[in-house]
Specification:
The complex is a heterodimer of chains A (115) and B (115). Chain A has 115 residues and is mainly β. Chain A is globular. Chain B has a single domain, classed as Sandwich (Immunoglobulin-like), CATH 2.60.40.10. Helix content of chain B is 0%, strand content 52%. Chain B contains no helices and twelve strands. In chain B, strand 8 and strand 9 form a beta hairpin. The chains are: A mainly beta (115), B mainly beta (115). Chains A and B meet through strand 4, strand 5 and strand 9 of A and strand 5, strand 6, strand 10 and strand 11 of B.
């Protein structure tokens, strides 16, 4: 594909349910990032992958959040037992390498609403 | 620790005029990159311009330029000849030497362009 894609675009769930958010990075991009954007806020780093390894999980808000990546392809962010404070836009980005100078290419995000 | 501060929640500019968005980046590191990203209503984050801390020359990309004052920790974005399509949220972000590609974002500045 031409860019980073994410699915679903929007997700409404009930408090306590589990949700899975998917990210398809640009083909060949080694690095993949997840960010969270609460309403009216900047982006908050969650986790990044180099290949299928996650060296830095420091941004995950709680143990209800987990993520995995298959090779240098698709990544899934899972939120278990969702809470209302999890409502946000979840953005995924990818870059060719982990170099700090690299442009991160963002997907359109998944808007999650927990009722 | 790194902090990114954008003190202007909203800015407005007349079409064809020039506007400057402010950002401060506080870090103990000497080697880092700074970025300005644009987020239109579609939510898709797009890189506008980047600056390496070691480079004395300010970056320029067409109508967009930065004024990087390292000692003052200031990283402002100047948009010349503003166009209606420039209306968006603008986020300042930085990444340190040992941070992988983990971007730290400011709170954003919403720019409106008046015809």
């Amino acid at each position: 594909g031409a860019g980073v894609s994410q699915s679903p675009s929007n997700k409404v769930t009930e408090k306590g349910k589990d949700v899975e958010l998917r990210c398809d990075p640009i083909s060949g991009h080694t690095a993949l990032y997840w960010y969270r954007q609460r309403l009216g806020q900047g982006l908050e780093f969650l986790i990044y992958f180099q290949g299928n390894s996650a060296p830095d999980k420091s941004g995950l808000p709680s143990d209800r959040f987990s993520a995995e990546r298959t090779g240098e392809s698709v990544s899934t962010l899972t939120i278990q037992r969702t809470q209302q404070e999890d409502s946000a836009v979840y953005l995924c980005a990818s870059s060719p390498t982990l170099k700090k100078s690299e442009t991160q290419y963002f997907g359109p995000g998944t808007r999650l609403l927990v009722l | 620790a790194q902090t990114v501060t954008q003190s202007q929640p909203e800015m407005s500019v007349q079409e064809a005029e020039t506007v400057t968005l402010s950002c401060t980046y506080d870090t103990s590191e000497s080697d880092y990159y700074l970025f300005w990203y644009k987020q239109p209503p579609s939510r898709q984050m797009i890189l506008v311009i980047r600056q390496e801390a070691y480079k004395q020359q300010n970056a320029t990309e067409n109508r967009f330029s930065v004024n990087f004052q390292k000692a003052a920790k200031s990283f402002s974005l100047k948009i010349s000849d503003s166009q209606l399509g420039d209306a968006a949220m603008y986020f300042c972000a930085g990444v340190g030497y040992n941070q992988g590609g983990k971007l730290i974002f400011g709170q954003g500045t919403e720019l409106s362009v008046k015809p």
